[in-house]
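Predict structure. Chain length: 637.
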Amino acid sequence: MDMEMTWRILAVLVLGITTAAQSDDEKFKNIENEFWSWRMRDAPQFATQVGDHSYNDILESFDISVYQTRKDKVREFLAKLDGVHPGSLPTNRDLDFAIFKEHLQTAQDGFAFNMLQIVNPVNFLEGITGDPASFHVYLPFSTVGDFENYIQRLTLLPKQIDEKIELMKISIQLKHTLHNVSVVGVIPQIEKLLSVNDTESPLYAPPFTTKLNESSVSEDKKESVRTRALAAVGHVKEALRRLKTFLEDEYMPNTRTTWGVGGLPNGTALYEQCLRYHTSTDMTPQQVHDLGLSEMARIQTNMQAALNRLKFNGSIQQFYEDIRHNPQFHKNTSEELLDTYKDYVKIITLKLSLLFKNIPDYPLRILPMTFDGPLGFYQSGSPDGKVPGTFYANVMNPANTTTITLMSLVLHETIPGHHLQSIYSLATRLPPYRAFIEDSNYYRMPATFPINTAHIEGWGLYAEFLGEEMGVYTDDYMLMGRYSDEIFRAVRLVVDTGLHYFGWERERAIEFIVNNTAESRHSAQVETDRYLTWPGQATAYKIGEIKLKDLRTSARTALGNNFDIRDFHSLILDNGVMSLDLLEQLVNEWISSRLTSTTTSPTSSGATWMLDMGWSKPLLWSTLVCWSVKKLCGRIF
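Prediction complete.
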């Protein structure tokens, strides 16, 4: 074979390898883009949240037919993925493919329980009644078009409310309703919205007050905008009255009589699927229950050691009882409580560089919750930073809130917890289905796309643990608050499975929480009602935290002196959230690459070096073939 023929054969080889790889990668990119475009149209409020303003003038449909359409679309995307060969994708796209396929498969698995979940779209924890400001928080308000878009959404809102009523009528017919405790709190929420003047409604102000005044809209148009906005708000209030009447006269008299979902038709299977959805494991309810009990025993040992240092001679329960009634550990006003949260954020900020590097610069704010729900929750900001990440703190009952638990809550919800978790994802160039999480509509779960609760909330609980390493728990009282929050998550494993699988009644769950944590009875009641409303969700925290700690231990053991906690944290945060199985795979591959890089120099293995530099497999092999041609033919390219 002459040299020219050799060159042609090798050139064809190079071209063939590269073209095939590009073909599969391009095919995958097209599927990704098509999926995300469909998601944005299907969930326009989510689109607004992630910075896509193409659909700011429409709302999601809650017509029953939409759910069949979603099933069909997911099957369609899964079928298209079958035409992509993952092994032909560039190395850095392997994880994208695995996460995307799992994203679709999780939804498809959950759709089997659609008629148990989607037919109950109203509860006291979420939606327009509980947090009306969330309806417009991500919308821009600058031009007249921005205000027109919001007016159009307000105009469509009554229809959406009526569609939710129709869904709940179906749940009554099927006997798939929520328990009364999940909806009774909606009535006072509606009454609060109806009681204020239209100009003071959270749906009207501040968009058509402060923001309109600050906007570029001309003065002659502002009055027209306000007039039409007030008319739209009036129609929304009429729809809310219809919802209130329906709940009182039809839905609440027909709510399920069993506390947990285990009493529903196919309820046990639903709960098992909820556990799979939220924990991304195959743990059985019994295993989750037992893990909670074992974690409680471990944490109680740490608690007793802290009590010994405090020279407290009573039991753990007596200690928390004393704390509940000791004014030293309470704030007098909601304002003082809110200021304490803000002060703690400042303290933690000074310590972050000990454990993290390259921290993205995105704003954080702390606001009071507008309803009496959990102790607090975090809401991600917008990608452009115009809407800050927000920690909503429950400051409605300062007399019932013990201050020893505030530091761990701040660590969990803000930094280094959910806010840090969110802004790393925003700053890293990830595909949008990895970077953005539709952290809403919990009532649908598991019949929806995954939010990887165990990773998200596991990180939040892990962040509480990091508070010890940062030294922000300054005394054993605060440490007991941290242990109380940790054991609270262990208690949740016991209580959640108890309510939904083992037939516990609500009062038994409340007593179990009060007897084993620092939570007040009021807080225990609210939390128990949350578990009854969102089955399985509360179990993810502890399971995710344990996995993160295990992965960290594995990495430290394998890498020894080459382990850098800041690099480990960057790996976890830069890659966004995923299932625990894929997270373990990611960490194991990182460990292997670190071990390889410390034992192999670039000169001894050009292939390894180029992969470490981020070269894709196809490009790597093409280069090596070209290098071989160069050596064989004596040509310089």
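Summary: The first helix runs from residue 3 to 42.
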